[in-house]
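Re: Re: ligand-bound prediction request (bumping)

Still looking for help on this. To restate: I need the protein modeled with phosphoenolpyruvate bound, output as structure tokens. Inputs repeated here so nobody has to scroll up.
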Amino acid sequence: MPDQDTLPTPAEVTGGRPLPEAVGRHRATIDAVLARRDRRLLVVAGPCSVHDPEAALDYARRLADAAERYADDLVVVLRAYLEKPRTVAGWTGLLPDPTLDGKGDIATGIRRGRSFLLDAAATGLPLAYEFVDPVLAHYVADLVSWGAVGARTVASQPHRHLASWLPMPIGMKNCVSGRLDTAVQAIQAAGLPHTFPGVAADGRLTTLHSAGNPAAHLVLRGGVAPNYDAASVAAALSALRAAGLPPRVVVDAAHGNSGKDHNRQPAVIADLAAQIAGGANAVAGVMIESYLSDGNQPLAGEPRPELSVTDPCLGWRRTVPLLEQLALATRRRG
Ligand SMILES: O=C[C@H](O)[C@H](O)COP(=O)(O)O
Ligand SMILES: C=C(OP(=O)(O)O)C(=O)O
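Reply:
Sorry for the wait, this slipped through. Here it is.
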């Protein structure tokens, strides 16, 4: 008999409900936007973390409605982040800790998290996901259309190998200090074939052979200083060109670019919208940390469903005008 800490196999959890047929289409669309074959702007928006699946679905449905309204200019993707990398310690997300209290019931987290991802995908939105733990990737990757390797793991060989194997565009974030070279090297590494250990569908450890991911790209998330302004974007494009990589970036309005202050995200988006309207074609996408209510809350006791328990997010009412602004800027860019 498996004890309660034994995890289900990937096949046991991925076999339950049919895969949304749209995932392949979403990945191809996002790839075309990043390669600038599609003139639209990628907008990755959503909560810093999902702690209450019902409330996050409420958010997803609102975002799906808005995505439809702006579909001529924006390709909107839901941040469906179920794992959190921590600087030192803290809640690590719904997948590894679904009861939000450090008990770490990962088996329940995998089932609950996957069920959330399937419900979120049913809204019609493509899903974004940060791959924090390479083992857990095998339980969710089939539902993800845009992946991220975060600022705290971008130097890690297992993450680069995983990115080289994953079948969706992967954003490599500049590291926490703001240095770009680690992320540029991560894009180069992910573009190559690798052989590394992973988890097979039947749960056995296996040797994986990757072909290399041609759609890995840079995400500017700021560091000790922001890097969303036109001069920083130009410097990033030069670094990409010097490394022989396509000059295209996604810019994160949160994290180091807003000093983790959600109130600063609108100013970052305004600056990016001005760059885009002015013709900055290499800005292929933006990222916004947005949720139902403005701000965040400490994780103690029973958390409010509509308020982030990790980084502060911009509330829904303040998010909609930003989508409008980005759609308009993209239309002007032509
Ligand atoms: O995006 C979320 C956080 O910035 C990230 O998980 C790190 O958080 P921490 O510095 O509070 O640990
Ligand atoms: C942790 C995140 O970002 P970063 O890696 O840029 O800190 C995130 O997007 O949730």
